[in-house]
Amino acid sequence: MRKYSHVIVIGIDGAGAYIKDAITPNFDKIFKDGAKTFDALASNPTISAECWGSMLLGVGPEVHKLTNGIVSNNPYPTDSAFPSVFRRIRDIYPNAVLGSYCDWNPITYGIIENGIGVSHDTAKDFQLTPIICDYIRETHPDFLFIQFDSVDGAGHRNGYGTAAHLESITHADKLVGDIYNTAKEALDMEETLFMVIADHGGANNENGGGSHGGWTDSEKYVTFAAVGKNVKSGNIGTMNIRDLAAIVLYAFGIEPPKFDENGWTAQIPEGIFTDDSLPEYKDISHLTGAAPRISKTPHTSELV
Ligand SMILES: [Zn+2]
Fold it and tell me: What's the CATH number where 183 sits?
């Protein structure tokens, strides 16, 4: 059974878990009573195509095998054995309004099937946001995926967790607020599942810049937050970013493929929905080579 009429995901590239260190009044307000974690595990390697691919396909990089080069140069095949959540939704809901608005356009081009009726546009995040807000007002989308890239750019240029990087997160937070407030005006929020996620964090170089792709804590632990009518309030336990695919399908009442260590590995983390019919979450940290870290103490921004 379909649970939500609208699902909105805002992905903030390179934000890692740093959202908890930045000034983010919109994030704090939106997810005050929502479910969140700053310890969701990214995909290994912590690179954009690998990570966004995991989230939209529900399988890890060891299965989807996407890289930045591949997604930049090849449209995602419409006959892939690992369809994106967009194709899975389209197959069940032929008339669903689907949108992908990404600052880094290779996501829309190389991770989502082309030609399945997904509205899209690309621009710098601050230019893209008003376009997204118009799209929400005009079409009331069923599923809307957004990716902002400027935070990762700031991390590469200035180092992750630096004042400039945290300031870029505050800018992105303003855009998150613009989108949330537009959704509040245009959509029935009782029927909307609203989420924010990061793909990876970063690590700093000796020369003052930053990069990512490795498996240090600051690269591999990321933010995820959700709010909606049956979303729990509090800290989410173990989560992997590829679980986003299972969460999106759940909202549409679409049965996910059967869990398979060599294929579909997205699951619904235990701390998200107040629904006891969900299967038990399996610890699959051996598939990423890292033990999931469960936060025992609340982070500062959760106390605000
Ligand atoms: Zn990235």
Answer: 3.40.720.10
138 occurs within a structural domain? yes
Rg of the chain (C-alpha set):
17
CA of 122 to the centre of ligand 1 (A): 16
Q: What 3-state class would DSSP assign to 233?
A: coil
Confidence (pLDDT) at 267: 96
C-alpha 153 – ligand 1 centre gap (Å):
9
| pTM as predicted | 0.94
Whole domain around residue 199: which residue ranges?
6-290
Q: 47 C-alpha vs ligand 1 centroid, how far in Å? A: 5
How many structural domains comprise the chain?
A: 1
Q: Which residues surround ligand 1, an ion (CB under 5 A)?
A: 13, 48, 199
Q: How do 192-198 and 221-227 pair as beta strands?
A: antiparallel
Tell me if 297 is assigned to some domain: no
Ligand 1 centroid vs 239 CA: distance in angstroms?
18
**CA 63 to ligand 1 centroid distance, Å:** 18
**CB 48 within 8 Å of CB 235:** no
Q: Name residue 145's beta-bridge partners.
A: 9, 100
From edge to edge, which strands make up the β-sheet containing 143-148? 118-121, 98-102, 143-148, 6-12, 192-198, 221-227, 35-41, 234-235
Please check whether residue 300 lies inside any domain of the structure.
Answer: no
3-state secondary structure of 215: coil
The answer to whether residue 58 is domain-embedded is yes
pLDDT in tens, 180-212: 999 999 999 999 999 999 999 999 988 889 999
Strand (E) or helix (H) holding 158:
helix 150-158
Q: Does residue 292 have a pLDDT over 80?
A: no
How distant, in Å, are the alpha carbons of 32, 233, 292, 294 from that of 225? 10, 10, 17, 15
Rounded CA gap, 73 and 278, in Å?
38
